[in-house]
Design goal:
The complex is a heterotrimer of chains A (167), B (330) and C (744). Chain A has 167 residues and is an alpha+beta fold. Chain A folds into 2 domains: 5-80, Beta-grasp domain (Ubiquitin-like (UB roll), Roll); 89-166, [2Fe-2S]-binding domain (DNA polymerase, domain 1, Orthogonal Bundle). Chain A has helices at 26-33, 89-96, 106-119, 125-131, 142-166, and strands at 5-11, 14-20, 52-55, 58-61, 74-76. A 5-stranded mixed sheet of chain A has the order 2-1-5-3-4, with helices on both faces. In chain A, helix 2 crosses helix 5. Chain A starts with a strand and ends with a helix. Chain B has helices at residues 12-20, 35-40, 77-82, 90-97, 102-107, 110-115, 121-127, 135-139, 163-167, 188-191, 271-277, 284-294, 305-322, and strands spanning 5-7, 26-29, 48-51, 61-63, 69-72, 172-176, 183-187, 210-216, 223-229, 240-249, 252-261, 268-269. With 744 residues, chain C is α+β, with helices and mostly antiparallel strands. Chain C folds into 3 domains: 26-34 and 444-582, Aldehyde Oxidoreductase, domain 4 (2-Layer Sandwich), CATH 3.30.365.10; 37-121 and 194-270, Aldehyde oxidase/xanthine dehydrogenase, a/b hammerhead (Aldehyde Oxidoreductase, domain 3, Alpha-Beta Complex), CATH 3.90.1170.50; 348-442 and 593-739, Aldehyde oxidase/xanthine dehydrogenase, molybdopterin binding domain (Aldehyde Oxidoreductase, domain 4). In chain C, the strands form 7 sheets. Chain C has a 7-stranded mixed sheet with strand order 3-5-1-13-10-11-12. A 6-stranded mixed sheet of chain C has the order 7-17-16-15-8-30, with helices on both faces. The relative contact order of chain C is 0.13. Classes of the chains: A alpha+beta (167), B alpha+beta (330), C alpha+beta (744). Chains A and C meet through helix 1, helix 2, helix 3, helix 4 and helix 5 of A and helix 1 and helix 16 of C.
């Protein structure tokens, strides 16, 4: 038990240690300590999804996770999705499909889509609308976001088929 | 957030000790989807936060010897959806699926869901849960407030979305603390209470106690369903909800249990609606009568009469769904 | 050099313009690399948080910051001038004291330790209730207009004449409708709140501001801080939503600069979410009582309305000019009352006043159709008039008529329409169709751009504009790429700094028109200079040269050409720099124009027992002149429609009648659309040559105007009676059902 502590977590594949207070949220640490400002603070109470990151593979609103809870966790943020300048299928689909405008909600939507496709590689349109209901877009790109997720799913399916075919 | 101490014990006993070893307020963290927001707004200012998520026994779903299922308080809502043990309790899964945020389902736990604080906007806006002895609600905008049991200072509604579904299933809670080996079982129906003054909380937990497990009895041959009136497809709370449990034999209702949500400071059981159903053939007329009976005791506030209508429709539609009929509306 | 004829290439020869170029800022945004004002973390930076007034109306008696200053980590406490003892505070959330600290947590704790004594004053927020507002002394006349075909005689009093003449016109009307309509106040609710990260470099202020107005906010800082504007640089590469609320540095922005000066450290001050709701801007409410009369064909010939509107504590309400909206009956009287409340002051909200005007008047036109038992489509069509004798004040009647036909086809109006309240019932569910018309100016704002062409062939531009999400960077690059016959990737666009040539604020759909003008002009002028050099070398007159496919070519003689790089190398050592300015004027520019029209149709379902409404389909047909980027233009329309669905069904600012508190200043209680709430949306661009040839016209505002009326009309068509006030919440639908018992 403590007031300040070093927490170690794997963030985007790297083992990271940071010093934090119990009252700091994971989002605060990501943005202000680790300079990972891709996750955004929209509402600060879990309703907009702009701060979504994956924690041990599951999507969480990092504004409601205490940084101390990240001890030993594996965390993936938007900064860990692309490989260098090579975008993954979801990012590519959001870009191609014009599923972003001001862009402030985009990292959250992309992380949530990553979680969805990991769990359900071929979601129906209704499933997409349901699984992304925790994310808000004010601009609002919802229609194109749905299309982008469908397209990302199809791309990923195709990629995995062609990988299987070459095996 | 005010500064606090943080501890993540790995056993129940350690947790109890951490909750009782010193003066000052202690809050239980089990997912944090409610508590962390409350602490940020400085509505809840604990000196110590005890995180239950590292206690393995609290994160398990297990069958019980009596044919039921025991769910650890720190089990996430997504974990419940994924559990085959809970397949026979489809209406519980359905109620969880109504919580339209995958993030909140992954992060939120069953214990946390049941112990969440009210959404009442006077409470959340810093005016206190019983703001001005109930006058803040009575004289203010009370469109989302209670339509039952609202005569006292408490006019908020209990916002648990799973409690009605669990109460119709006769769920029980295992409560531990404040002494290291203290354990008691409480029916979920008796867990909530209406606070009369500012020192009381909305449930029977005393300092040093927490909910460790939720136990569901044998699923039996009931038909259950939950219906929520949800304005949109997002994670917003429903306006009203009802859970229904029916035992129908040869077209006649042998047994029924009806619990409404978001209409009173506690989940609101309607024995009036149950009486209208029990012993009657399950017809449209019977269902309509149950809906009407459910609102017989309603005492709407200045701006929430519409919720009485919604409560009535919620009961009808929950019963229809439990009976395997389409709800009739959205 | 001959005068340059500014022009766009025609449809067939356009290589880039009108295409579907992917947005150039998309990479940064989809990887999290884009830095918004509140992502800027500077070395040694302080984080500031503010205390807002808990009271909607009070006087400050005293402020004690001693305990706050003692909180570990707190570095500076700044009491705002308007919060000094004795000052009156007129809305909840108004910032009083700012605490700057080493961490956000310390700043928040500091704020919690501030001790302020207030003297509460009487509160009024019930803008819906005109009688109560009058009693509270919160109303004032806010203009009005009377227009009658007949004129009063010399000896007649105008007001009395108007009374009598209107009565006469109503008497001779074949159909008369009386109604009440309204729309509540909503907020901008930008996901990135207002705020800035600022620092001083000696006597220079650098402000990373979340703004729609890069070129204009340096003046704002300068005026408030009393320093020359040339000592200030405002920077903004990305904005997390503005919608009309981010044109100024705001007092919290300048306060951050003051704290940075006092402490000698960079300061970040962003509003908290509830402060953003309370202070970041809102759209005025509007409520209208009207009587309108139509002839036997349904053409409305007389309109007599009285409306009231509240901008909160300050600012203009909805004016008479948008009443009735688009439609222009020959005889009208429109009176306006402003209601002042203890809510935060209104700010421009996407298409200021038009959504309200549309929602509270085209609903009345629809009720006329219902009264007559005819289709709204037919009534709207009759009221358009003709191009020679228009019945509308927006776009040309022929444009609306053509768009109506397209929209009707896309939503299958003929097959799906039924008389009001007479549709088939499926369980407790009924469905209905509704429509609306809208218009907007959208002419380009003043814009200056410098194009720089380097001897190595590199092209870049400098312009003090910004991208609020609409795609400014991409549009500018496309214009220059088209002009120089290059790929979009070959162009570097520099914007987002007040040090660059001045360009207007991004408001009122003026940006695309403005920046495409300045970029095209500077581009054409630079190209002319390049062509002059190439002309000599090729022995072809400069006027005969074109830029295409990476080369400067002789028109019609492909053999005579030089590569772009080679042409630029002729510049020698010095880059070519050309600056051009577009100033809007009365004379039509060949590159841009103003005024568009659009038609929207909604198909909804209503659950008559719960009052829940679900969108089935929404069709938006829009005219916008020349389209630069089709993909981005579509995004604008989809986005606007969904915002419109949100304010039609969900969004409202809820103020507590007793305390004046903004009760739902929280994203969990301020309801917005989610992915599952929007139904099917169909977007159709209306772009015959007659429209395309007008040049560029802004598109941000127009499609957000119509959803309120279209959806309200669809709900009315479903139920057979009006739910008078937006948003159409279950509570309101159920109350309307109760008030119309026996009619549902």
């Amino acid at each position: 038990m403590s007031r300040k502590r070093v927490v170690s977590a794997t963030i985007n594949g790297d083992l990271v240690e940071f010093l934090c207070e119990p009252r700091q949220t994971l989002l605060e640490v990501l943005r202000n300590v680790l300079e990972l400002t891709g996750a955004k603070e929209g509402c600060s109470n879990g309703n907009c999804g702009a701060c979504t990151v994956l924690m041990n593979g599951r999507p969480v609103v990092s504004c409601l996770v205490l940084a101390m809870e990240a001890e030993g966790a594996e965390i993936r943020t938007i900064e860990g999705v692309a490989c260098g300048s090579h975008l993954d299928e979801v990012q590519q689909a959001f870009l191609q499909g014009a599923a972003l405008q001001c862009g402030i909600c985009t990292p959250g939507f992309i992380m949530q889509t990553e979680a969805l496709l990991a769990e359900n590689p071929q979601p129906s349109e209704d499933e997409i609308r349901f699984y992304l209901a925790g994310n808000l877009c004010r601009c609002t790109g919802y229609d194109k976001i749905v299309r982008a997720v469908q397209s990302a799913a199809a791309q990923r399916q195709q990629a995995s088929h062609s990988t299987q075919a070459t095996r | 957030m005010k500064a606090f101490e943080y501890a993540a014990p790995s056993t129940e006993a350690e947790a109890i000790e951490l909750m009782t070893e010193r003066a000052g307020t202690v809050e239980i963290l089990a997912g944090g989807t409610d508590l962390v927001g409350l602490m940020k707004q400085m509505l809840v200012n604990p000196d110590r936060v005890v995180n239950l998520m590292e206690i393995r026994s609290l994160r398990e779903i297990e069958p019980t010897p009596s044919g039921g299922v025991s769910i650890g308080a720190a089990v996430s809502l997504e974990q419940i959806l994924d559990s085959h043990y809970l397949d026979p309790y489809a209406s519980l899964k359905q109620a969880i699926n109504n919580i339209s945020s995958m993030q909140l389902r992954c992060q939120g736990t069953l214990g946390g869901e049941l112990c969440q604080r009210p959404q009442c906007w006077f409470f959340r806006g810093g005016h206190g849960l019983l703001g001005d002895d109930g006058r803040a609600v009575a004289q203010g905008d009370n469109r989302y407030h209670a339509v039952f049991a609202n005569a006292g200072p408490a006019k908020f509604v209990n916002n648990s979305r799973l409690a009605p579904a669990l109460i119709v299933r006769d769920a029980r809670l295992r409560i531990v603390g404040p002494s290291p080996d203290a354990e008691q079982w409480v029916d979920l129906a008796d867990f909530y209470r209406i606070p009369r003054h500012g020192e009381q909380r909305e449930n029977v937990l005393r300092a040093g106690q927490f909910v460790s497990h939720i136990e569901l009895p044998d699923p039996g041959s009931f038909q259950c369903a939950t219906y929520e009136v949800r304005q949109g497809a997002g994670p917003e709370y429903p306006l009203t909800a009802a859970a229904a449990r029916l035992n129908v034999q040869s077209g006649v209702v042998r047994d029924a249990k009806i619990v409404l949500g978001h209409v009173a400071p506690t989940p609101w059981r309607s024995e009036d609606a149950e009486h209208e159903l029990i012993g009657k053939p399950l017809t449209a007329e019977t269902i309509e009568a149950a809906g009407l009976a459910a609102i017989r005791l309603a005492t709407p506030l200045s701006r929430n009469e519409y919720k009485v209508t919604l409560a009535q429709v919620s009961v009808e539609r929950a019963v229809r769904m439990a009976a395997g009929l389409p709800p009739g509306g959205f | 050099m001959a005068d340059i004829q500014y022009s766009w290439p025609d449809r067939d020869s356009s290589k880039v313009i009108g295409g579907r170029q992917i947005r150039l800022d998309g990479m940064a945004k989809s990887t999290g690399a884009a830095k918004y004002a509140y992502d800027i973390n500077l070395k040694n930076m302080l984080v500031a948080r503010a205390l807002g007034s808990p009271h909607a109306h009070c006087t400050i008696k005293s402020i004690d910051s001693a305990q706050a200053e003692k909180v570990p980590g707190v570095v500076h406490v700044h009491v705002l001038d308007h919060a000094k003892p004795g000052r009156e505070i007129r809305w909840q959330g108004e910032l009083l004291v700012i605490v700057a600290a080493e961490t956000e947590a310390a700043a928040m704790e500091g704020v919690s330790k501030l001790r302020v004594e207030y003297e509460p004053l009487e509160v009024f927020v019930d803008e819906f209730n005109l009688e109560a507002a009058k009693k509270a002394g919160r109303t004032s006349k806010d203009g009005g207009k009377v227009q009658l075909e007949k004129e009063p005689g010399d000896d007649e009093d105008e007001a009395t004449f108007a009374d009598k003449e209107l009565e006469r016109l109503f008497k001779q009307s074949a159909h008369v409708v009386e109604g009440f309509y309204g729309i509540d106040a909503i907020t901008h609710c930008c996901l990135e709140p207002h705020g800035a990260t600022v620092y001083w470099d000696n006597d220079q202020l650098i402000a990373y501001l979340s703004t729609q107005n890069v070129s204009g906010t340096d003046e704002g800082f300068a005026n408030d801080l009393k320093i020359p504007a040339d000592k200030i640089e405002v920077r903004c590469q990305y904005v997390g939503g503005g919608f009309g609320s981010k044109f100024a540095p705001d007092y919290w922005g300048t306060a951050a600069a003051r704290i940075a000066k006092a402490t000698g450290r960079p300061v970040k001050l962003m509003l908290s979410r509830d402060q953003e709701f309370k202070l970041g801007g809102n759209r005025p409410s509007a409520y209208l009582k009207v009587r309108l009369g139509a002839d036997k064909d349904g053409v409305v010939t007389v309109w007599d309305s009285d409306h009231w509107s509240s901008p909160g504590a300050d600012g203009p309400g909805v004016p008479q000019g948008v009443i009735p909206y688009v439609f222009a009956p020959k005889n009208y009287r429109r009176a306006v009352t402003k209601v002042t409340t203890n809510n935060g002051p209104a700010r421009a909200w996407r298409a200021p006043n038009h959504p309200q005007g549309c929602a509270i008047t085209q609903t009345a036109y629809d009720d006329m159709a219902a009264r007559m038992g005819i289709s709204s489509y037919d009534l709207f069509l009759k009221n358009l008039g003709t191009d020679d004798s228009p019945g509308v004040a927006g776009a040309k009647p022929s444009v609306y008529a053509a768009e109506m036909e397209i929209a009707a086809r896309l939503i299958d109006w003929k097959a799906k329409w039924h008389p009001h309240g007479k549709g088939a019932r499926r369980g407790d569910i009924v469905d209905g169709l509704g429509m609306s018309l809208h218009t907007w100016g959208g002419g380009g704002h003043e814009s200056t751009c410098t194009v720089k062409i380097h001897p190595d062939g590199g092209v870049e531009s400098f312009c003090g504009t910004q991208d609020i999400g609409s795609g400014t960077r991409t549009v500018c690059a496309m214009v220059l790429a088209e002009t120089f016959g290059l790929g979009v990737d070959a162009i570097r666009i520099n914007y987002g700094s007040s040090r660059f040539p001045v360009s207007g604020p991004s408001g009122g759909s003026t940006t695309v028109g403005g920046v495409s003008e300045s970029h095209r002009r500077a581009g054409q002028e630079a190209l002319a200079k390049i062509c002059e050099m190439v002309a000599e070398k090729l022995g072809v007159p400069a006027a005969e040269l074109i830029a295409d496919d990476g080369r400067i070519k002789a028109r019609g003689d492909a053999k005579k050409s030089v590569a772009w790089k080679e042409a630029c190398a002729m510049l020698g050592m010095k880059p070519l720099e050309v600056t051009a300015t577009f100033r809007p004027s009365r004379n039509k520019s060949p590159l841009s124009d103003t005024k568009v029209g659009g038609v929207q149709m909604a198909h909804v379902e209503v659950d008559t027992r719960t009052g829940l409404i679900r969108m089935r389909k929404f069709v938006a047909v829009q005219d916008m002149g020349l389209i630069i980027n089709r993909r981005l233009a579509e995004s604008q329309i989809y986005g606007a429609v969904i915002m419109g669905i949100a304010y039609s069904l969900f969004e409202q600012r809820i103020s507590d009648p007793a305390s004046g508190a903004f009760l739902n200043a929280d994203m969990s209680k301020y309801n917005l659309c989610r992915l599952g709430d929007i139904g099917e949306i169909v977007v159709e661009m209306y772009e015959p040559e007659s429209e395309r040839s007008r040049g560029v016209i802004g598109l941000g505002e127009p499609p957000v105007i119509g959803p309120g009326a279209a959806i309200s009309n669809a709900v009315c068509n479903a139920l057979g009676f009006r739910v008078p006030v937006l948003p159409l919440t279950p509570q309101r639908v159920l109350e309307a059902i109760k008030n119309n018992a026996g009619r549902a």
